[in-house]
Write a structure and sequence with these properties.
The chain is of the alpha/beta class. The chain has 10 helices and 9 strands. The protein is about 30% helix and about 15% strand.
Length: about 270
């Protein structure tokens, strides 16, 4: 499958532009899901969500919709992947598994000051669950911050994928690529208007791209020519497996427009 979406969906500037007048905030996710087949949940990066929220998001979207979920910055930016077992258990216990058949890749975005450390990365990748059953088992080791075990329930055992988005050039290292391949973790292809290093090595059985802005980070839209180029890349990656692409250039209301534009070029929707 090819999944195209945006990074998040709750943006006030989209109201009255992408979201027509009359579409209430409670209807925004459903409106977006009628036009795109995936979205990144980015609120999980900033704080713990509740199982009821994940259940509600899943219920608002079509059967074939998929959610990617951005992992907490507490793990990636504060703990910096060290001593991560309990925080990762808490993350999965918070309700991610409530997405059931709509669960997509977990995105682990690193800070720009995080340099590649083979030992740290190897230990962290070894911790990551590769299935929902393994995630539920890990979640059982949560601490007191999780009030109950509601978020540990799964309806079926499904594969669970992970993607890593580093922002330091030191990750352009064959040891890093080998670790990612060994654990089937995708190295994110991130277009950051040359703000951070660009990686395009495919290290998993799926590809994951984040488009943060063509010329200006987080704000500039993608021209027709740029979308044509990205469509060609997606077609090439798709020969090897599934592809997930998310637009994060939301500041000027370009993300949903560009996501729809790329989807149409790929014959989606």
């Amino acid at each position: 499958m090819i999944r195209i979406g945006t990074s998040g969906w709750v943006y006030p500037p989209w109201r009255g532009t992408f979201y027509p007048k009359g579409v209430t905030q409670k209807r925004e996710l459903a409106y977006l899901a009628e036009r795109l087949n995936s979205v990144e949940i980015n609120g999980t990066f900033y704080g713990r969500q509740r199982p009821a929220s994940f259940r509600s998001w899943a219920a608002q979207t079509p059967d074939d919709f998929v959610f990617a979920t951005k992992a907490p910055r507490f793990i990636t930016h504060m703990k910096r992947l060290r001593d991560a077992e309990t925080p990762v258990a808490n993350f999965f216990a918070s309700g991610v598994l409530m997405l059931q058949n709509k669960i997509g890749p977990i995105l682990w975005q690193l800070p720009a000051t995080f340099r590649f450390d083979a030992d740290v990365l190897a230990e962290f990748l070894g911790l990551l669950p590769q299935s929902t059953a393994a995630a539920a088992k890990l979640s059982a080791r949560h601490d007191h911050r999780i009030e109950d075990d509601e978020g540990l329930r799964i309806d079926a055992d499904r594969p669970l994928r992970h993607a890593l988005e580093p922002r330091h050039v030191s990750f352009q290292d064959e040891k890093c690529l080998r670790l990612l391949r060994d654990h089937n973790v995708a190295l994110v292809v991130a277009d950051t208007a040359k703000k951070w290093p660009y990686f395009e090595e495919l290290t998993a059985d799926f590809a994951y791209a984040r488009l943060h802005g063509d010329v200006e980070l987080y704000t500039s839209g993608y021209t027709d020519e740029a979308l044509d180029r990205w469509a060609a890349k997606v077609r090439e990656w798709h020969r090897r497996g599934d592809v997930h692409v998310y637009f994060d250039n939301d500041a000027k209301v370009r993300a949903p427009v560009d996501a729809i534009g790329l989807s149409r070029r790929l014959g989606i929707g």
